[in-house]
């Protein structure tokens, strides 16, 4: 794999991947694909080629993918289901490897899909790729939650400015999380040696802490006792499903948290080989407290 194109690189993860590729993957010729009507190129480094295509046109996408060896899809929720046209265009252009937009909880796990029905869309794309393995290879990267972003955005329930924490199911359940730069390094490792992860789900992690572990680290770092609120995953599921039924997208956040942090332990990817995958991809251990900081 020499020529790599990133699709949908302007979300939470995209800019980190672009920056890490630029710094640590000089052996790739990589470019970025944006929609023909998008004006978001300003966020990308000036030396990286930005191509444009009509995402609803097979011909336009096929032309954009010409001479590419790998397509890395980072598209957001609105475009997940439409990745089939990206796969079709990649095959038509002779691309060898397609990485669908995963980078979250394990969408291959039926129990998680019951908690978070929106995950069906991601699984459907992998199924679509599985049916075309004679034409193109794929790798689906599962990371649990984003750790660094999950802390700074308060998504994981920790707010440093107010020193408050929300623990799900008492914060006793380990769950897999990965720093965004580590996700980028894993992608570089896979693209550098595609056979290691060909036609497989890949489980990576930075840490598999409990909520209580994060709280203890936060209290040590700040030298203060935090205010703790408790919520049950059952209540999150109930609240999430009610909100989603009313068309409130915040309901999805409740469902994601229930799936990742809940008492069933569905968010712990060690049982799925995350530690072995880290070794296989050469991802070294990271500093937990430094990442909380």
Report on this structure.
- The protein is α/β, with parallel strands linked by helices.
- It folds into 2 domains: 3-143 and 179-203, 3-Layer(aba) Sandwich (Rossmann fold); 145-176 and 206-268 and 288-292, UDP-galactose 4-epimerase, domain 1.
- 40% of the residues lie in helices and 17% in strands.
- The chain contains 12 helices and 12 strands.
- It has helices spanning 14-24, 58-65, 83-93, 110-115, 119-130, 147-152, 180-192, 211-222, 233-245, 250-261, 274-280, 288-292; strands at residues 3-7, 29-35, 50-53, 70-73, 97-99, 137-142, 145-146, 158-159, 164-168, 177-178, 200-203, 227-231.
- The strands form 3 sheets. The protein has a 7-stranded parallel beta sheet with strand order 3-2-1-4-5-6-11, sandwiched between helices.
- Helix 1 crosses helix 7 (180-192), helix 2 packs across helix 3 (83-93) and helix 9 (233-245) packs antiparallel against helix 10.
- The two termini are 36 Å apart.
- This is NAD(P)-binding protein.
Question: What's the topology here?
Answer:
Elements: E1 3-7, H1 14-24, E2 29-35, E3 50-53, H2 58-65, E4 70-73, H3 83-93, E5 97-99, H4 110-115, H5 119-130, E6 137-142, E7 145-146, H6 147-152, E8 158-159, E9 164-168, E10 177-178, H7 180-192, E11 200-203, H8 211-222, E12 227-231, H9 233-245, H10 250-261, H11 274-280, H12 288-292
Parallel strand pairs: 1-2, 1-4, 2-3, 4-5, 5-6, 6-11, 7-10, 9-12
Antiparallel strand pairs: 8-9
Helix pairs in contact: 1-7, 2-3, 9-10
């Amino acid at each position: 794999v020499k020529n790599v194109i990133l699709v949908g690189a302007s979300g939470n993860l995209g800019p980190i991947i672009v920056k890490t590729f630029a710094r640590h993957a000089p052996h790739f010729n990589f470019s970025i694909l944006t929609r023909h009507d998008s004006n978001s190129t300003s966020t990308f480094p000036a030396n990286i080629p930005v191509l444009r295509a009509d995402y609803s046109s097979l011909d336009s996408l096929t032309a954009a993918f010409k001479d590419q060896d790998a397509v890395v899809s980072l598209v957001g929720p609105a475009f997940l289901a439409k990745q089939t046209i990206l796969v079709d265009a990649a095959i038509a252009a002779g691309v060898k490897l397609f990485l669908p937009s995963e980078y979250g909880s394990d969408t291959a796990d039926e129990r998680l899909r019951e908690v978070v029905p929106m995950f069906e869309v991601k699984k459907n794309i992998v199924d679509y790729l599985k049916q075309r393995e004679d034409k193109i290879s794929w790798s689906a990267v599962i990371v649990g939650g984003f750790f660094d972003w999950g802390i700074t955005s308060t998504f994981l329930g920790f707010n440093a400015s107010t020193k408050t924490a929300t623990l799900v199911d008492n914060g006793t359940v380990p769950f897999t999380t990965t720093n965004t730069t580590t996700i980028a390094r894993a992608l570089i490792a896979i693209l550098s040696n595609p056979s290691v992860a060909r036609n497989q789900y890949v489980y990576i992690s930075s840490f598999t802490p409990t909520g209580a572990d994060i709280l203890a680290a936060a209290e040590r770092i700040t030298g203060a006792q935090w205010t703790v609120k408790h919520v049950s995953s059952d209540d999150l599921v109930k609240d999430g499903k009610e909100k989603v039924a009313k068309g409130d997208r915040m309901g999805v956040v409740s469902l994601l948290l229930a799936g990742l942090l809940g008492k069933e332990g569905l968010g712990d990817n060690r049982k799925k080989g995350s530690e072995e995958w880290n070794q296989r991809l050469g991802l070294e251990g990271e500093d937990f407290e430094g990442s909380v900081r």
